[in-house]
Every structure is written in structure tokens, then in C-alpha cells.
């Protein structure tokens, strides 16, 4: 390699390093991404809320595929739709505050979903309903506590999500998977 090629190679490498440094600086100072400014409790809330929400979506997707009862199908679809919207908001906040979360269900939820898939008929509907009631009680407790957050974004998300969680819990608590032609409420 002669001197001209070496000089050219060094120049290209230097330019590449400058471009990378510029991109890192631009990403770090992006106005929509806030580093810090969030408490340990709020970080924990985001992680737990994503986990609870992923559980609800996962189990409800199983119900959509497994149950033939119209009320169970209605509730499962409603939960999938609503919680998918909540998941997007949670993921947005987690990204803004640089909190690493996983929207994938954990091994315990995958195991629970596997157990549910093995059930059929009213046994499935009852097990799904019990799981959803339990999960929504956890979620309501979690989001209720988040209302006290000093972070306005967390507080707002909790306040706007609680009515939806309350509705899901009410639907689950009132669920009779095999009613005699009960009309479904509008979506």
C-alpha cells in the first residue's frame, strides 16, 4: 500500500468516526428522548405494567383461538384491542425515559398460556376468566399506585388507563361463558 492509499484510508476512517460520533450525539440529545428524570418506582411501574399488559394480551389471544363462547370471544377481543393500545403508550414512555422493557410474555405466562391451550369448552372459559380477573386486579392495583407518581406522563397514563382496566375487570367478573342468548354490548 503506498502513501496515497494509506492517507485515503485514514481519511475515510476518520470521516466514519466523525459520522458515528455525530449520530450518537444527535440520538442522545433528541428532544423526545429523556434520559433520567424518572424515579426508580416509575421505572419499576413501566416494567411491571408492560409485563401485566403482555399477559392480558397473550391469554386473550389464546381465548380468541380456543373459546367458542361469544361472551368470552367478546371480552378477549376487547382486551386485545384495548391492551394493544396501552402497550404502545407504555412502550413509548419506556423509550422516552430510556427504560428497557420487553413486550414478550415471560416464561410463566407462556406456561400459563400452554396450560390454557390444553383445556376445552367450559373448563377453558372458566380458567381463562379466572386468570383475567386475577391479572386485572394486579393491573388495577399497579395503575392505581402510579397515579401518585410525581412524573406527569406516568400519572396521566395511569389515570387514563384505569377506566379501561376497571371495565375489563367488570366484564370478567360478570362473565358467564354459556348464557342463554344474552346480547353483547357494543364495542
From TrEMBL:
Q: Which domain of life is it from?
A: Bacteria
InterPro entries in the cross-refs: DUF4142, Ferritin-like
Q: What is the protein's name according to its record? A: DUF4142 domain-containing protein
Q: Where are the transmembrane segments?
A: 6-24
Keywords tagged on the record:
Membrane, Transmembrane, Transmembrane helix
Q: Which residues form a coiled coil?
A: none
Q: Where is the DUF4142 domain?
A: 41-175
Amino acid at each position: 500500500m503506498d502513501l496515497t492509499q494509506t492517507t485515503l484510508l485514514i481519511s475515510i476512517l476518520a470521516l466514519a468516526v466523525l459520522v458515528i460520533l455525530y449520530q450518537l450525539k444527535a440520538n442522545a440529545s433528541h428532544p423526545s428522548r429523556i434520559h433520567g428524570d424518572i424515579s426508580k418506582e416509575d421505572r419499576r411501574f413501566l416494567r411491571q405494567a408492560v409485563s401485566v399488559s403482555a399477559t392480558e394480551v397473550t391469554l386473550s389471544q389464546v381465548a380468541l383461538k380456543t373459546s367458542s363462547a361469544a361472551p368470552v370471544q367478546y371480552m378477549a377481543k376487547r382486551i386485545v384491542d384495548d391492551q394493544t393500545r396501552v402497550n404502545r403508550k407504555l412502550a413509548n414512555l419506556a423509550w422516552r425515559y430510556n427504560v428497557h422493557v420487553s413486550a414478550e410474555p415471560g416464561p410463566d405466562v407462556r406456561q400459563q398460556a400452554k396450560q390454557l391451550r390444553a383445556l376445552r369448552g367450559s373448563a377453558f372459559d372458566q380458567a381463562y376468566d379466572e386468570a383475567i380477573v386475577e391479572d386485572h386486579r394486579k393491573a388495577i392495583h399497579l395503575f392505581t399506585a402510579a397515579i401518585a407518581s410525581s412524573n406527569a406522563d406516568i400519572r396521566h397514563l395511569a389515570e387514563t388507563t384505569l377506566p379501561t382496566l376497571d371495565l375489563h375487570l367488570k366484564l370478567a367478573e360478570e362473565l358467564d361463558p354459556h348464557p342463554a342468548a344474552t346480547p353483547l354490548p357494543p364495542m
